[in-house]
Amino acid sequence: MSGSDSSLRRVVDKTRRVMRARRKHTMLRGTSTASSMEDIAEDQHFPINLEALRHAVSRFFGRACISCSKLTDGGFHSIYVLQLEEDITDDPDLPVEVIARVALPTFSHDKMESEAATKLYIRARTNVPVPKIHFWDSDPDNPVGAEYMVVERVPGESAADVWDTFSKDQKSFVMEQLAGHISEVFNLRIESIGSLYVHKDHLKRAWKKSMKLFDKDVDDDATEFEVGPVVCTLYCSDPEDEFPRSHVKNPNRGPFKSAGEWLSSILEYELAFTQEHHEEALEESVLLKTPPDSNTAVDVDSAQSKGRRQRQLEFARISLSSLMDLAKSYCGPAVDGPQGHLSTQFSLLHHDFQLSNLQVDPQTAQILGILDWEATHSTPLWACARLPNWLAVTSPLPEQDEDVKPSIRFGGDEDTAPRISRCSTRPAVSAADYEEAAELRKVFLEHVCPEWREAYEVGRDWQQFQEICCLNWMSWTEPCMRERIDLYREQAMYHPGVPLNEQEVENRIRGSKNISVS
Question: InterPro entries from the entry (predicted)?
Answer without folding.
Answer: AGP_Transferase (IPR051678), Kinase-like_dom_sf (IPR011009)
